[in-house]
Design a protein that fits this description.
single chain, 8-stranded parallel β-barrel, 10 strands, 38% helix
């Protein structure tokens, strides 16, 4: 397992970060198995574990807390705040009111008295960034949080946060967690250069584009019964649109999967391992999040932890999906409210 510096914090994290979104009601409901998977990841050299309060309505944090009993100091533990966690109008967002309350809930669920990395899960246009950073700075000074991070922030908002930190003498975001894969490359335009300029770490999520780049979805074949495509469709989730093959952009994904599989074959790799290694090839990327739901998926992902791509393979990928391109805009992970019709018209 390779280890890399988390920005300029001085902390070192594994190039693979274990994401636990699939642990609990959103994925694997066998909690003992999830605990074993966390232990197996640590034993394989992963020292970076990422979760969020909203994953499984808090259950993911509880599973992680259970798994880390007696092993807490072996990992850099990250969680997030922002998503809706209750019926009250203030049980969500990036306000001081919510942040100082929700950190206590996360600490309780995780069974610890501090988190190493506390991240704002999405921007909140209703909250001044200084308000958010001020509250999070207090958490650092209270010893409840070590480092601050943001997730899926547009480049200009990362810059705005840095200016606010410098202007007010507040803690800065040490890292950003954006979506990044062969199919979703928009962060190459601004987020990754900004992160390098500011010395921020970058932890990328969805490196397999929701399973598309594992080869799970192929032309002429039905999606597996246990796949996200099937589960989201059954729930009536809007995320099911990512897998709807009647959408032209998803038809293009089906074509690209075949072309990329041929590139991987020429490189002597599986499509999954090539896709994961692609994200780690960019010099601004610190760590890429693996999100296994089953032990078999974890085993396969760990087998590719040391894969690195040759320039010839990276060039072939660029020929299919050029730098900065997004195959399907829906996969960006954040639809800015200022792009809604109501915000664009008087």
């Amino acid at each position: 397992m390779e280890y890399r510096a988390l920005g300029r914090t001085g902390a070192e994290v594994s190039a693979y970060c274990l994401g636990t979104m699939m642990f609990g009601s959103w994925g694997n409901t066998d909690e003992d198995e999830c605990v074993r998977m966390i232990h197996a990841s640590i034993d394989a050299g992963i020292n970076f574990v990422d979760t969020a309060d909203v994953y499984g309505e808090g259950r993911s944090e509880e599973i992680v807390g259970k798994a880390l009993q007696g092993r807490r100091d072996e990992v850099v533990l990250a969680t997030k705040v922002h998503g809706e966690m209750g019926p009250s109008r203030n049980d969500r967002g990036n306000s001081r009111l919510w942040i100082v309350r929700e950190i206590e809930n996360s600490l309780r669920r995780l069974g610890t008295d501090y988190v190493d990395l506390y991240q704002i899960h999405r921007p909140d246009p209703a909250t001044d960034i200084e308000e958010t950073l001020s509250a999070m700075t207090d958490l650092v000074r209270q010893g409840k949080v070590r480092y601050l991070g943001c997730s899926t922030f547009p480049g200009w908002q990362i810059v705005e946060s840095r200016w606010a930190s410098e202007r007010r003498g507040l803690e800065r975001f040490a890292c950003e967690q954006p979506p990044y894969s062969i199919f979703v490359r928009h962060i190459e335009w601004d987020v990754l250069p900004i992160a390098r300029a500011y010395g921020m770490g970058v932890i990328v999520w969805s490196p397999l584009a929701g399973g598309w780049l594992s080869g799970k979805y192929r032309r002429g074949a039905s999606p597996p019964e246990d796949s996200r495509a099937v589960r989201f469709k059954e729930r009536g989730s809007p995320v099911a649109r990512r897998f709807d093959t009647s959408v032209p952009e998803n038809q293009r994904k089906l074509d690209l999967v075949e072309d990329l599989a041929a590139v991987a074959d020429r490189a002597g790799l599986s499509l999954t391992h090539m896709a994961m290694a692609f994200t780690l090839a960019h010099p601004a990327v610190t760590s890429t999040i693996i999100g296994p739901r089953t032990p078999e998926q974890l085993e396969d992902l760990l087998a590719g932890a040391d894969v690195r791509l040759e320039a010839e393979t990276l060039d072939a990928i660029d020929d299919l999906v050029p730098p900065g391109e997004v195959v399907f805009d829906f996969d960006r992970g954040y639809q800015p409210p200022w792009m809604s019709p109501q915000a664009r018209r008087r």
